[in-house]
Amino acid sequence: MENIIKVKGLTKKYNNFLALDNVSLEIKKGRIYGILGRNGAGKTTIMKSILGLTFPTSGEIYIKGAPIDYKDKKQFFTIGSMIETPAFYSNLSARENLELFALIRGITQKNAIEKALDIVGLEINSNKPFASFSMGMKQRLGIANALLHEPEVLILDEPTNGLDPMGIVEVRNILIDLCRDFSKTILISSHILSEIEKVADDIAFIEKGRVVEESSMESIRSRCGKYTSYVVSDVYNSARLLEENYENLNYIVIDNKEIRVFELNDKTNSINRLLINNGIDVFQITTQNESLEEYFKKLTGGDGK
Ligand SMILES: Nc1ncnc2c1ncn2[C@@H]1O[C@H](COP(=O)(O)OP(=O)(O)OP(=O)(O)O)[C@@H](O)[C@H]1O
Question: What separation in Å is there between the alpha carbon of 211 and the centre of ligand 1?
Fold first, then answer.
């Protein structure tokens, strides 16, 4: 599949602070790419680097196969963006705001404003001033503004930040429609896994400026394996017994009661017998599917927030 944006070995230092460390991403045409990471992980810095709003310390960025040239502003016509909360004139309506931005940006296509507002579901004839918009409407106007020049790619930084549940669903549906019906490629960021997983086709998980994992959601889901959970009287000795009796067994200790074993072949009976024969009480055995949250928690060894 064709890459529309490629980032290779991107590094960004602020004085001695390494905000991005050798980040590589491949954003494929016609798909939604989600950057997932905690606050401060480096998501905005990646987006700003692609947009020429900040300059990387080293690394390469390609837009439609051509190396990015920060002096050649035409390259950026390919992209529409919304970084941080969109700023609009509070006394103007959605249409009036977009008319102003279209004028400033030299956009002359006749129905550009109508089309953009229609896509995001805002009334073209409404006189409602921006000041009285809900957060969701503000965010949707921001997306419409990014769409005005009909870019192939949209870069949206935390587009669902601060929205109520209905607002989140609305933005999510707009993104899916843009991708499916208007063939846009979309790069979005979020610190909330459940939001990214519902829209993204591909995902990069960023932690402290590094890509911990880049993969398609399909592949991640298929890797979220089955596990068997053992609630036992002594996790420490249970773990020791597993180590001694099984080679390369994939397991984790959850807390002082539970061990999870990820297994391809069913070893439940033999593990149960091993534990009981060694004087360990097994209170409960259940087989479950690992959630995405658990999958990412394992990747970072952290609390998964
Ligand atoms: N202009 C700057 N000068 C110094 N440090 C910066 C600057 N911009 C960002 N940083 C630092 O770089 C790191 C990455 O910031 P970035 O904004 O890319 O993170 P983020 O993942 O987008 O998080 P958030 O969701 O909080 O914006 C943070 O530790 C931030 O404090």
Answer: 15
The stretch 23-40 carries a mean pLDDT of 95
Question: Which amino acid makes up residue 15?
Answer: N
- Domain match, 99 and 158 both: yes
Q: Are residues 148 and 35 in the same domain?
A: yes
Provide the ipTM. 0.94
pLDDT band at 174 (very low <50, low <70, confident <90, very high): very high
Q: Return the CATH number at 83.
A: 3.40.50.300
Cβ of 162 less than 6 Å from ligand 1? no
Q: Give the phi and the psi of residue 292 in degrees, each rounded to 5.
A: -60, -35
Structural domain span for residue 241: 225-289
Q: Specify whether 190 is located in the same domain as 208.
A: yes
151 vs 218 pLDDT, higher one: 151
Confidence of residue 302 (pLDDT cuts 50, 70, 90): low
**pLDDT tens digit sequence for 71-85:** 887 888 899 999 977
For ligand 1, atom 25: residue with the closest CA: 39
Distance, CA of 199 to CA of 15 (rounded, Å): 36
Residue 78 lies in a domain: yes
Query: What pLDDT does residue 305 have?
Result: 42
Cβ(41) to ligand 1 under 6 A? yes
Residue 297 pLDDT greater than 90, yes or no:
no
* Dist CA 65 CA 299 (whole Å): 31
**Cβ–Cβ < 8 Å for 280, 233:** yes
Residue ending a domain, choose from 222, 244, 279: 222
Show which of 190, 222, 254 is a domain's final residue.
222
Q: What is the pTM of this model?
A: 0.80
Cα dihedral across residues 191, 194, 195, 201: positive or negative = positive
